[in-house]
């Protein structure tokens, strides 16, 4: 039994309202009514159109493009909910933008992930719910309870249903733990590619392959696909090493230009992503399949509201 008034109440900004509606359908609740729009001068206005006093409020807003605009929109929504005397405010950010800026790896650069963690807390969020952070230490940037869900199991189950039987590939050493978990769940071998990134231009150079893929189907697992440069370079290396069908999977389908064109022209047969960001579609080349995270988010919200364990979802 929750200590807050009524059912959980869910609102959405303009980043991904379709996901919010699907989450509400999974929860069997109505999406909360709110006005969230920009004035002619570019200033953002937020008004909740129903009483949220002492309610358990969940604000769904991933870091979709335009990223900065949607992050500010989230901050204003949090502030409005706090000033409306919400009982508890949970920021539901399925895709936490700026996750790559998690450390000071060059002179005179910011740690932007920490900055936005601070801003979300300062705005008045009492809790954070997110999915597959780019780096584990980001969870420690928050001083409020932070639950990190994973969409990887949903993707793995998607390929298991298609009876995938091949080799799971980590596109870099940093993804090895994630890929190892996928390989173990699918009872398949693991291979790893070593990559080296050049500067800040989203360009990578794949160096070598550790493992055997000749004559096998392969599944490349990562947390996100942005411009698809890494994914395509790894796929080309795997094809040169004798791989047969090549698949990709990532929780977050950022798919910045020219990602779709690269995927269409690549040796990749299909890529599966989740809908933490608004789904995109591409042409006649690589197929793009979308797996919904709405039931998972809905169950996590129910558990948070009722005081049940969120971690038990992954045992």
3D structure, described in words:
- The structure is a single chain.
- With 315 residues, this protein is of the alpha/beta class.
- It is 30% helix and 29% strand.
- It is built from 8 helices and 14 strands.
- It has helices at residues 17-27, 67-83, 112-123, 152-161, 176-186, 229-240, 259-265, 294-306; strands spanning 5-12, 34-38, 44-48, 55-60, 88-93, 127-131, 146-149, 166-170, 190-198, 203-210, 217-225, 246-253, 268-274, 287-291.
- It has a 7-stranded mixed beta sheet with strand order 10-9-8-11-12-13-14, sandwiched between helices. A 5-stranded parallel beta sheet has the order 1-4-5-6-7, sandwiched between helices. Strands 2-3 form a two-stranded antiparallel ribbon.
- Helix 3 links the parallel strand 5 and strand 6 (127-131).
- Helix 1 (17-27) packs across helix 8 (294-306), helix 2 runs parallel beside helix 3 and helix 4 packs parallel to helix 5.
- The longest helix is centred in the N-terminal third of the chain and has 17 residues, at 67-83.
- The protein is globular, with a radius of gyration of 20 Å.
- It starts with a strand and ends in a 9-residue tail after the last helix.
Question: What structural keywords apply?
Answer:
8 helices; alpha/beta; 315 residues; single chain; 14 strands
Give a quick summary of the entry.
The protein contains 8 helices and 14 strands.
Break the fold down into its secondary structure elements and pairings.
Layout: E1 5-12, H1 17-27, E2 34-38, E3 44-48, E4 55-60, H2 67-83, E5 88-93, H3 112-123, E6 127-131, E7 146-149, H4 152-161, E8 166-170, H5 176-186, E9 190-198, E10 203-210, E11 217-225, H6 229-240, E12 246-253, H7 259-265, E13 268-274, E14 287-291, H8 294-306
Parallel strand pairs: 1-4, 4-5, 5-6, 6-7, 8-9, 8-11, 11-12, 12-13, 13-14
Antiparallel strand pairs: 2-3, 9-10
Helix pairs in contact: 1-8, 2-3, 4-5
């Amino acid at each position: 039994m929750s200590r807050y008034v009524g059912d959980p109440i869910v609102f959405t900004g303009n980043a991904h309202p379709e996901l919010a509606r699907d989450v509400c359908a999974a929860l069997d609740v109505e999406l909360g009514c709110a006005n969230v729009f920009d004035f002619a001068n570019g200033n953002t206005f937020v008004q909740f159109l129903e009483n949220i006093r002492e309610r358990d409020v969940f604000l769904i807003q991933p870091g979709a493009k335009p990223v900065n605009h949607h992050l500010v929109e989230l901050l204003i929504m949090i502030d409005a909910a706090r000033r409306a005397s919400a009982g508890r405010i949970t920021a539901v950010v399925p895709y936490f933008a700026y996750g790559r800026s998690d450390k000071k790896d060059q002179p005179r650069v910011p740690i932007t992930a920490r900055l936005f963690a601070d801003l979300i807390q300062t705005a008045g969020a009492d809790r954070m719910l997110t999915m597959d952070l780019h780096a584990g230490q980001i969870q420690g940037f928050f001083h409020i309870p932070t639950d990190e869900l994973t969409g990887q199991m949903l993707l793995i189950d998607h390929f298991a249903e298609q009876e995938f039987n091949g080799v799971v590939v980590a596109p870099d050493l940093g993804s090895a733990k994630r890929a190892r978990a996928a390989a173990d769940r699918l009872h398949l071998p693991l291979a790893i590619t070593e990559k080296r990134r050049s500067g800040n231009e989203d360009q990578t150079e794949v160096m070598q392959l550790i493992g055997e893929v000749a004559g096998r189907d392969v599944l490349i697992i990562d947390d996100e696909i942005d411009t698809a440069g890494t994914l395509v370079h790894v796929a080309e290396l795997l094809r040169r090493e004798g791989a047969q069908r090549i698949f990709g999977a990532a929780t977050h389908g950022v798919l910045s230009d020219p990602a779709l064109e690269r995927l269409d022209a690549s040796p990749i047969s299909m890529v599966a992503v989740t809908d933490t960001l608004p789904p995109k579609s591409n042409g006649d080349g690589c197929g793009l399949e979308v797996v919904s995270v709405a039931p998972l988010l809905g169950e996590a919200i129910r558990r948070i509201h009722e005081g049940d364990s969120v971690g038990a979802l992954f045992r």
